[in-house]
Amino acid sequence: LLFFSGSMEPAFHRGDLLFLTNRIEDPIRVGEIVVFRIEGREIPIVHRVLKIHEKQNGDIKFLTKGDNNAVDDRGLYKRGQHWLEKKDVVGRARGFVPYIGIVTILMNDYPKFKYAVLFLLGLFVLVHRE
Amino acid sequence: LRKNVEDFTGPRERSDLGFVTFDITADILNGKNGLQTFIFDWNVKQLFLYLSAEYSTKNNALNQVILWDKIMLRGENPRLFLKDMKSKYFFFDDGNGLKGNRNVTLTLSWNVVPNAGILPLITGSGHVSVPFPDTYETTKSY
């Protein structure tokens, strides 16, 4: 997953590549960085869990906030929605690699660059086959 | 200190709002392999520190609320010596579960952000119990 905005700086920047897991059994706890989608919106958001209220049966509602944002994400949620639920979670951030994503962004924007990368990768594979 | 006010950022019901003032004295160390080493090693870019309150209520078996957080960059001294801090975020309960709650535990934790690699969440050793009073504070003193 690639970062597009600066709401989690200085930890993550545009172009950083994030590694996610999505094990449903993993409990959601404060401090964790989760990837979630707001109903009706395509682009997922990667923010930190700020508050959780979990019932005995495992039903959980939680609130998120970007590290670099002054306020929590309630303003981003759907109108009338005050909390996120397990079903909104797409993944949990477990690790990342910086700036690698910029290569993918460039490949998308400049097809010639994509062919060059693929060509170089092809060469690399051939040479290593020796 | 605790007040019962309308939560103006959430649903329109009366929920308990807690006010906590705290001091933090901490030395952040890397406790890997049982040894204590300097936390900002070659692959640690920053620490996201947060003070969280954890408690149980009639409504919810588990509640966790981050009261305060701080980003510490590599190069800063990994010690905290803070006094008389007020919580950064409103400590609203999902209901009225703070009143008379004797078992609200405050813990300091941190997310290690590497230059590249895994993002672990570490919980510091040492936590504090904050008992909330049985009555609401009606005077505006916060």
Automatic annotation (TrEMBL), chain A:
<keyword id="KW-0812">Transmembrane</keyword>
<dbReference type="InterPro" id="IPR001733">
    <property type="entry name" value="Peptidase_S26B"/>
</dbReference>
<keyword id="KW-0378">Hydrolase</keyword>
<keyword id="KW-0256">Endoplasmic reticulum</keyword>
<protein>
    <recommendedName>
        <fullName>Signal peptidase complex catalytic subunit SEC11</fullName>
        <ecNumber>3.4.21.89</ecNumber>
    </recommendedName>
</protein>
<comment type="function">
    <text>Catalytic component of the signal peptidase complex (SPC) which catalyzes the cleavage of N-terminal signal sequences from nascent proteins as they are translocated into the lumen of the endoplasmic reticulum. Specifically cleaves N-terminal signal peptides that contain a hydrophobic alpha-helix (h-region) shorter than 18-20 amino acids.</text>
</comment>
<comment type="similarity">
    <text>Belongs to the peptidase S26B family.</text>
</comment>
<dbReference type="InterPro" id="IPR015927">
    <property type="entry name" value="Peptidase_S24_S26A/B/C"/>
</dbReference>
<dbReference type="InterPro" id="IPR036286">
    <property type="entry name" value="LexA/Signal_pep-like_sf"/>
</dbReference>
<dbReference type="InterPro" id="IPR019758">
    <property type="entry name" value="Pept_S26A_signal_pept_1_CS"/>
</dbReference>
<dbReference type="GO" id="GO:0009003">
    <property type="term" value="F:signal peptidase activity"/>
</dbReference>
<dbReference type="GO" id="GO:0004252">
    <property type="term" value="F:serine-type endopeptidase activity"/>
</dbReference>
<keyword id="KW-0735">Signal-anchor</keyword>
<keyword id="KW-0645">Protease</keyword>
<keyword id="KW-0472">Membrane</keyword>
<comment type="subunit">
    <text>Component of the signal peptidase complex paralog A (SPC-A) composed of a catalytic subunit SEC11A and three accessory subunits SPCS1, SPCS2 and SPCS3. Within the complex, interacts with SPCS2 and SPCS3. The complex induces a local thinning of the ER membrane which is used to measure the length of the signal peptide (SP) h-region of protein substrates. This ensures the selectivity of the complex towards h-regions shorter than 18-20 amino acids.</text>
</comment>
<keyword id="KW-1133">Transmembrane helix</keyword>
<dbReference type="GO" id="GO:0006465">
    <property type="term" value="P:signal peptide processing"/>
</dbReference>
<dbReference type="InterPro" id="IPR019756">
    <property type="entry name" value="Pept_S26A_signal_pept_1_Ser-AS"/>
</dbReference>
<dbReference type="InterPro" id="IPR019533">
    <property type="entry name" value="Peptidase_S26"/>
</dbReference>
<dbReference type="GO" id="GO:0005787">
    <property type="term" value="C:signal peptidase complex"/>
</dbReference>
<dbReference type="Pfam" id="PF00717">
    <property type="entry name" value="Peptidase_S24"/>
</dbReference>
UniProtKB/TrEMBL annotation, chain B:
<keyword id="KW-0812">Transmembrane</keyword>
<dbReference type="GO" id="GO:0045047">
    <property type="term" value="P:protein targeting to ER"/>
</dbReference>
<comment type="function">
    <text>Essential component of the signal peptidase complex (SPC) which catalyzes the cleavage of N-terminal signal sequences from nascent proteins as they are translocated into the lumen of the endoplasmic reticulum. Essential for the SPC catalytic activity, possibly by stabilizing and positioning the active center of the complex close to the lumenal surface.</text>
</comment>
<comment type="similarity">
    <text>Belongs to the SPCS3 family.</text>
</comment>
<keyword id="KW-0472">Membrane</keyword>
<keyword id="KW-0735">Signal-anchor</keyword>
<keyword id="KW-1133">Transmembrane helix</keyword>
<dbReference type="GO" id="GO:0006465">
    <property type="term" value="P:signal peptide processing"/>
</dbReference>
<dbReference type="InterPro" id="IPR007653">
    <property type="entry name" value="SPC3"/>
</dbReference>
<keyword id="KW-0256">Endoplasmic reticulum</keyword>
<protein>
    <recommendedName>
        <fullName>Signal peptidase complex subunit 3</fullName>
    </recommendedName>
</protein>
<dbReference type="Pfam" id="PF04573">
    <property type="entry name" value="SPC22"/>
</dbReference>
<dbReference type="GO" id="GO:0005787">
    <property type="term" value="C:signal peptidase complex"/>
</dbReference>
